[in-house]
Amino acid sequence: MNIIVLLSAGRDPHAGTPRPVPVELQAIALALRLAPATTITGLHAGEPDPSVLDALGHGLTTLTLLLTNPANDPLAALAAEIDRARPDLVLAGRRGRGGTDSGLLPYRLARARAMPIAADAIAIEPDGNDLAILQSLPRGARRRLTLARPAIVTIHEAAPPARAFAYRARRNGTIHEKPGIPAPSPTDNHEIRPYRQRPRLIAETTQPTTAGHLMLAPTPETAAAAVLAYVEQFRRR
Amino acid sequence: MAFGALVLLAWLLLAGVAIQAARLGLLWRHGAGASVDWLGGLRALPRRYLVDVHAVVARKPASSVMHQAIAGGLLAATALLLLAAIPALFAAALYWLLIALAFAVALFGAVLVRRRRVPVRPASLSAGAFLTLPTYLGAYAAGGLIATSLPGVAGLLGVAVAAFGGIGLVAQITGGPMRHAVAGALHLAAHPRPARFAGSAASGLAPLDLDATRLGVGTIDDFAWNRLLGFDACIQCGRCEEACPAFAAGQPLNPKALIQDFCAANRKDGATYAGSPHPGIASPGPVLGVLHGETLWSCTTCRACVAACPMMIEHVDAVIDIRRNLTLEHGAAPGKADAALAALRYAGNTGGFAPTQRLDFAAGLKLRVLAPGEAVDTLLWLGDGAFDRRYGATLRALIGIMRAAGLDFAVLGPAERDCGDLARRLGDEAGFARLARANVALLGTIRFTRIVTADPHALHVLRQEYQAFGGHYTVVHHTALIDELITANRITLGPASDTVITYHDPCYLGRYNRETAAPRRVLAHLTGRAVEMARAREASFCCGGGGGAPVTDIPGKQRIPDLRMEQARETGASMVAVACPGCTAMLEGVVGPRPLVRDIAELVHEALQ
After folding, report:
1. Chain B contact for A172 (CB, 8 A cutoff)
2. Are B215 and A164 within 8 A, CB to CB?
3. What ipTM score was computed for the predicted complex, to two decimals?
4. Do B329 and A167 touch (CB under 8 A)?
5. Which H/E stretch holds residue A120?
6. B89 is in which domain, residue-wise?
7. What does the buried/exposed string (b/e) look like for B400-435 if buried means 16 or more CB atoms within 10 Å of the residue's CB?
8. What residues does each domain of chain A span?
9. What is the CATH class of A3-179?
10. Residue at a domain's end among B459, B483, B507
11. pLDDT values of chain A reduced to their tens digit, one per residue, 237 residues
């Protein structure tokens, strides 16, 4: 089986340094259960980012780099490479995690190539000409799916652990560099602003509540008055 | 006639020794190349044997007497016999009296050798060929004594008995205990770390060529030939086994069996080992065809075995060499090692924390953080203990002491990275080299006269192991700094308490850097009732926190810190003074009623006036 694992230029969530996306490394481990290492290729559109190259240390032996500006939209370059390589299965991470990894890319790719896509797989097995997928659902629930090949599958963190990093494999891995297809980023005209913690909205319940009401951006005076009124309930009489 | 036959026997035995030594030499040639200063080594051999080796042997006085009698008697008698080929000496009656005396000493020695295992063989001593050794030794010595003192047929009978013993001994050179005599002498001359005889306490870990085809030791032939020679020098005296904390805790590591595994791996006929095995694991294993990975990952790199070995064998360097292969080529470090190494690779610290969190422990202290180009007298190296709130308390105490003394000091803050100790001990030499280069480059951007650290692991790496990366620094442990401040009257302590305190030597301070006096001097200012554990100073028992053991977490029957705490309890101490973040964490992790664990910096800070 011919498998492509999509790799993103991940970032360490704490240090901000280039770091492979953990769930993509789990995708490599899952691919290695399905097929020999020689039929598995890592694929990245962008620059030779250390985070992508480090995936070679986790069981991947070959990596195709489509050289584009990292600010570009990688979709066209990736779609063209998938047309050329004709994989049976494309594996990807499931959501953005702070690097250039976008949770939408696998879906855009599936739409662009009219391939079926399944999300949050924790196990994949060949099933005749199809793929049997075990999907992770919230609260530990599992669901079996069958997908026709070729398909795109995103991997869930509950999948088996990634292979440990081995320096020699990272050093000896093969990297194929190819020119990518430049395309403007679909996010170029988006507004980018720092993340702001939003108050959590809790659905109204029918049960009578004894405490608390939500105040959005109150003035200091009204907030203080509310706190005092609340504390007043507990005052010893 | 008996005299002539005896001299002939001595020369024939010498020829036998030469043939057997050559056969051993062929085995050692399997090993990788190593540059050895033969001339210097051979010149230093008598001193290394008589001073360095016997200083270790003499820690057990009975063994010392035994070895002096048997080795001295045997060598003297045989050497004198060889020289008796000179007619003038052959004719001298007094000369033969001397030979008889030497044989008598050797016979006494042979009796002592036998008494080591008879009637009761201690668990740390091997059986097998060692049980026949006293017979051969005794036969050679007794036969020689008879041949030199009795005339006629009795004398000739003595030669026959000596021949039986001598041939038995020579036969034991390739496969038995007598290998120790030949390999031991050559090992002392061609030692892989000759600096240790000059008092250097560093380890023999050289940076790896990371572009090499083979990384670390993956087969027995990857060891340098003089390491293979060193393994063959082992006489299986079991002192490493008695010293090893992992063995004591029932983890699958016996340093003595480990060295014998290496010897077996270098031979086709395999194992003839008859001592205690690696606890709880069936030999042989897959690593080098003889070992299990668990055996290698159990090592805390405390070097208690190296310090205890009278043959100066370097067990720990061999363990790290194989770990390098396991980690760099196979990613085989078990447990949480891969996660810790990834955290080091990407976040620059073992916990994967944001670099800015390194200063969280010092909230409100307004520490001076050095920017590139700035200068300071004392650089305080925080180490990865800074991320731990418990050790943060120790660092706050140390900072309080340094402020009280009016020291000009600063920290690197978020720019500081882990020193790489964990990466190197876990075999990730690539990760260590990356951290070392980054830290050396960072330290090159600022000016300081010395580094003070409260972490002995960082101290050792900065002081000894960064030299290969171009970093040469004066590094002072905080206990040495406090000692210096007290002596110079820059801080004044209140009156000593009457708390019974025992001091636990960190391996990387005591054994790796031979600093055992300063902490004790400081402790003497704090309490009038300092007591010593049975295993202290260079014989200290590890807390179990070194060498990445807490992340690889190989199960045993007991935990190493529990054993150490039990040793502390036996002294009757109500407090254990420590001087290392690893020891603090390991010993404080001991559950149940136990002595308090406090860092020396905390005790001094409380006693400040």
Report:
1. no
2. no
3. 0.90
4. yes
5. strand A117-127
6. 2-184
7. bbbebbebebbbbbebbbbbbbbbbbbbbbbbbbbb
8. 3-179
9. alpha beta
10. B483
11. 899 999 999 999 888 899 999 999 999 999 999 999 999 999 999 999 999 999 999 999 999 999 999 888 999 999 999 999 999 999 999 988 777 777 889 999 999 999 999 999 999 999 999 999 999 998 889 999 999 999 999 999 999 999 999 999 999 999 999 999 998 876 666 777 888 888 877 766 665 555 567 888 889 999 999 889 888 887 776
